[in-house]
Specification:
Elements lengths: L13 H6 L6 H12 L7 H8 L6 H5 L6 H14 L9 H9 L3 H17 L1 H7 L2 H4 L2 H8 L15 E2 L7 E5 L5 H4 L1 H13 L2 E4 L9 H5 L3 H22 L4 E4 L2 H8 L1 H4 L7 H10 E3 H5 L4 H9 L10 E3 L6 E3 L41 E7 L3 H7 L3 H14 L2 E3 L14 H4 L1 H18 L1 E5 L3 H13 L5 E3 L1 H11 L15
Parallel strand pairs: 2-3, 2-4, 4-5, 8-9, 8-10, 10-11
Antiparallel strand pairs: 1-3, 6-7
Helix pairs in contact: 12-25, 15-20, 19-21, 21-25, 23-24
The structure holds iron/sulfur cluster (SF4) (2 copies).
Length: 499
């Protein structure tokens, strides 16, 4: 613990920013960790609540001049608390249920049968009307934030291989995740679609397991290591049979940070340490990968610069899902067609818009021609990836004729933080409110972020405000931009693809 107590991290810590309490700051928590390690404090409820209140967002790591690796400290502390059977929310029955369901797509998918039935039959609507959903506590709130669900078993249909469009420039493996394929399958589809357009052959082997982040953040590092070993072995076996990949792609910030931590998790395992290092060396967030050459150039040519519309066209209204006249674009941008995707989702707006329809009396509508970017904590602080997603979002925005505007406090956590919004709903709500105010101040009608936790949380914020805000992953925007400018085979309508 190299903390020199300088306090430079305090202003960056969301819980300190909200509460102003030293014990709920990085410096205060490190002090408590040291006291526990030296036997000067006992892991009582009074002590553990300050660790429970930590988001694990790692904003303090970014701010720290001493290189304190706070993410490791909090994970190890939670593991210690688990071993000591200390009173902590991370060992509550609710967390154990979540840990038994969330990392397993088939289990999550099966559990959501009840939600699908409840929604279709109107029972959930009725239960909400008479206040029954409140009795379910955090689970009731979770349901409200869930996007529209695809039919049971849909997540199994994601293709194992997707060929490169045009000349092949790279071969990549793809980590598909556990919650994402069930709740936001369109993000995985957009990821493989964009990678393919950028010239990548994409392989997504079956039988992948959760990255282990959920368990690691809760202090169950043993289970996290089991997931890590499984995934490493699975991806090694694929490459042994089909040839080596240039990169292993992940589109969820929390998972990407965890995959890059495999060498640390397995550092004391002689059999797996080196294999973990080889695996992690190839892991790239999708934006980190696509921002490189030759992929960025290929997508640049596909996405823009925008051309003026040949004639006035109509675009889907991001606020009500109904067509309205396209807003004239002073930059001469192309107007968006009603549906150019050819998939079962629509082109702006996407799935879930019915949950963010503006209600009577809703706030002034933000512009669907303006987009802003929220940094997922585990991408910005956990992986140091900030410029690349902005570069790609700007490219897509230019192609779509949408303006990218900066977001105030963009690196401040939105309150999602894995299971944090379930375990600490009050603080999570405060942080979400702060985030939504910042988003509203931009006047953007679209917010983009690269983590499923963030996008679900922001969607929930928009729903609470009756806001028409669209919440997308950067690859969804990029996929839309490139759909507008390709001839259906992924070839650019003009210029060369750069390879
Ligand atoms: S991880 Fe986030 S919430 Fe926890 S101490 Fe660091 S900045 Fe604060
Ligand atoms: S910035 Fe780093 S060294 Fe300074 S108080 Fe925070 S954790 Fe300690």
């Amino acid at each position: 613990m190299d903390c020199i107590h300088c306090g430079l991290c305090l202003s960056q810590c969301p819980t300190y920013a909200e509460e102003g309490l030293e014990a709920d700051s990085p410096r205060g928590r490190i002090y408590l960790m040291r006291a526990l390690a030296e036997g000067r404090a006992e892991p009582t409820a009074e002590v553990t609540r300050h660790f429970d209140s930590c988001l694990g967002c790692r904003a303090c790591e970014t701010a720290c001049p001493s290189g304190v690796r706070y993410g490791h400290l909090i994970e190890n502390t939670r593991e210690f608390l688990k071993q000591e059977q200390a009173p902590t929310k991370h060992r509550s029955p609710l967390v154990q249920v979540l840990e038994a369901v969330f990392p397993y797509s088939p289990r999550l998918d099966a559990l959501l049968i009840a939600v699908r039935f409840g929604r279709k039959s109107g029972l959930i609507w009725l239960a909400r009307r008479v206040g029954l959903m409140k009795l379910l506590g955090p689970l009731g709130a979770m349901e409200a934030n869930l996007p529209p669900l695809r039919p049971f078993g849909s997540h199994r249909k994601f293709p194992v291989e997707t060929k490169a469009r045009g000349k092949e420039a790279a071969r990549v493996g793809m980590v598909t995740g556990c919650v994402l394929p069930v709740l936001q399958p369109q993000v995985n589809e957009a990821t493989s679609s964009v990678l393919s357009k950028a010239g990548c052959h994409v392989a997504a082997p079956r039988n992948q397991r959760c990255c282990g982040a959920l368990h690691a953040h809760g202090g169950d590092l043993d289970t996290a290591r089991k997931f890590a070993r499984h995934n490493i072995a699975l991806f090694e076996a694929w490459q042994a049979e089909h040839g080596n990949w240039d990169a292993i792609i992940i589109n969820a910030a929390g998972c990407g940070a965890a995959l890059k931590e495999y060498p640390a998790w397995l550092s004391e395992d002689a059999e797996w340490r080196e294999r973990a290092e080889k695996f992690a060396a190839k892991v790239r967030d999708v934006s980190e990968f696509l921002a490189q050459e030759p992929f960025a150039s290929r997508l640049q040519v596909l996405a823009g610069p925008p051309q003026p519309p040949a004639q006035p066209s109509r675009m889907p209204d991001a606020t009500h899902g109904a067509a309205r006249e396209a807003v004239p674009n002073t930059a001469g941008a192309a107007s968006l067609p009603a549906n150019a995707s050819g998939r079962d989702d629509k082109l702006l707006p996407l799935e879930g818009d019915e949950q963010t329809k503006a209600a009577p009396g809703a706030p002034e509508l933000a512009s669907p021609r303006r987009v802003t970017y929220h940094d997922a904590c585990h991408l910005a602080h956990g992986q140091g990836v900030r410029a690349q997603p902005r570069q790609l979002v700007k490219m897509a925005a230019d192609g779509l004729g949408v303006e990218l505007v900066p977001l105030g406090e963009s690196e401040m956590c939105c309150g999602s933080a894995g299971t944090y919004n379930i375990l600490q709903p009050a603080m999570a709500s405060q942080l979400l409110e702060r985030k939504m105010k910042n988003i509203q101040a931009t006047g953007a009608g679209i917010v983009v972020s690269a983590n499923i936790g963030c996008t679900l949380q922001l969607r929930g914020g928009a729903r609470q405000l009756n806001s028409p805000l669209q919440v997308l992953h950067p690859v969804e925007l990029l996929d839309q931009a490139t759909q507008l400018t390709t001839d259906g085979r992924g070839e650019p309508r003009r210029g060369s693809a750069g390879s």
